[in-house]
Amino acid sequence: MDVDGKIAVITGGASGIGRSTALELARRGADIVVADVNDERIAEVQGEVEALGRRYLGVHCDVTNDADIEHMRDAAISTMGQVDIVMSNAGVAMIGPPEGLSMAEWDWILQINLYGVIRNVRAFLPHLLERGSGHVVNTASVAGLFAYSWDHPTYITAKFAVVGFTEALALYLKPLGIGVTLLTPGLVETNMGETARLGGVDDISRWIREIPLETPVPADAVGVLVADAISADRYHVMTHPAEASAKMRARGQDLDAFVASQIALLPMPPNLYREG
Q1: N or C: which end of the chain has fewer CB within 10 A?
Q2: Is residue 1 situated within a structural domain?
Q3: 148 carries an active-site annotation
Q4: Mean pLDDT in the chain?
Q5: How far apart are CA 253 and CA 158, in angstroms?
Q6: Mean per-residue pLDDT for 122-137?
Q7: Is residue 226 within 8 Å of 183, Cβ to Cβ?
Q8: Exactly one of 56, 115, 155, 273 is catalytic; which is it?
Q9: 79-83: long-range contacts at Cβ-Cβ below 8 A with a sequence spacing of 24 or more?
Q10: For residues 78 and 131, what is the distance between their CA atoms, to the nearest angstrom?
Q11: 3-class DSSP state for residue 214?
Q12: Is 37 a domain residue?
């Protein structure tokens, strides 16, 4: 897809990876619709996109709300005329032990990180299918390719589901003329920490351990990767391809051995019941 003259909708588009993708697509000639819950940042991105000479629509949108998603879709199509690129990027994080997390805490992260993606794709699919063209981008994580630690079970669960959902979409949509891209970032310099939560425990100092992670990359670099993937109709985009590919190969060759190696690599998790 040549993105010049196309219309891109991005949830979670007012900061981090979403913002960087919006600006990179605008630089390449796309008009931008940003859906986010942070109105101040929506306005900031508006100034940046319009400075690049592109049309912009900012919509306050909570991806856990069906009505918000549908309103955003209708506003995007009526204002811009059509939609060509749909990126589901809104996401949050939570740290906490699986035995302590409440169902409300599970629901909070799954509603945003998984059902938010499903809602957004579902809302725009009839429009894309009717036109027989377009591109869908779903932001998952390396946490959806392999469990990288024991302290993010909710996040890992949601991202594994997004990976499976996106792969199924590719099987369905690509033969019908609609591109699909799965973005699996590793550690990226974003503001996710602002909304991250601690679940299931009261004292974070007893839970946090130093987990080995890759070197973070700037969010601006990820927007370039996404725009390149859309243009090339590429399915999988990684921010840390060497590290992630090695992990995926090891996982695919021998899952028993891979899980054992991950257990040996990571620090011992706390047993808060025995520690009192």
Answers
A1: C
A2: no
A3: no
A4: 92
A5: 24
A6: 98
A7: yes
A8: 155
A9: 79/33, 80/7, 80/31, 80/33, 80/55, 81/7, 82/7, 82/127, 82/131, 83/7, 83/8, 83/9, 83/33, 83/124, 83/127, 83/128, 83/134
A10: 15
A11: coil
A12: yes
pLDDT band at 199 (very low <50, low <70, confident <90, very high): confident
- Give CA–CA dist 217/190, Å, rounded: 9
- Is the entire prediction scored with pTM above 0.85? yes
Residue 2 lies in a domain: no
Report which DSSP code applies to 60.
E
- Residues 86 and 128: beta-carbon distance below 8 Å: yes
Q: Is the pLDDT of residue 222 over 90?
A: yes
Query: What residues form DSSP beta bridges with 33?
Result: 9, 57
Q: For strands 94-95 and 135-139, give the pairing.
A: unpaired
* Domains: count for the chain: 1
The domain that contains 136 carries what CATH number? 3.40.50.720
The one-character DSSP state at 143 is G
